[in-house]
Predict the 3D structure of the following.
Amino acid sequence: MRLKTMLLGLLPVLLLSGKSSTTTPDKGFNPGEQIPSIVVEGTDIGGSLAREPKAVLVVWSVEDATSRVANAWVTNNPALRDTNTPIYSICIDGDDRDADLYSRIDGSNALITPIGLEGESQKHRSLRQLASRGSNKVYYTSYGMIEKVITSDTLFKEMQ
């Protein structure tokens, strides 16, 4: 009797464990999550990252020196340039002109054009999240999935 009860109790567990999930990954700015749609000047950066096998997203601020150093380091990184890894540089508190100016002052590669978010409508939830939780970080992605996140402070300490 006990064996029969145990087998009947295990049957639902076995059936449920074999179920395959077709859910999409969570959207966000943490490892294992998909970069959300970030539309800036009509371009969906999240969508662009989703099409790239490997890409790097740098989110920096003109008012934060360590994040500016992180931006310059990533855009000038020979390992990333040698593999033609796309680099997306987003300045959260400057317009395109300011972002380009500060990026050049810091010695960033001229081939990378930073995107300034100042003046962009913050109506979109993903832009608000990027400005509040995603700033001052370097995101390594694969097809839009975040593989690794490094804060600019950590990167700055490693470079010293």
In short: Residues 2-17 form the longest helix (16 residues). The chain has seven helices and seven strands. The beta strands are 39-40, 43-44, 55-60, 87-91, 115-116, 137-142, 145-151.
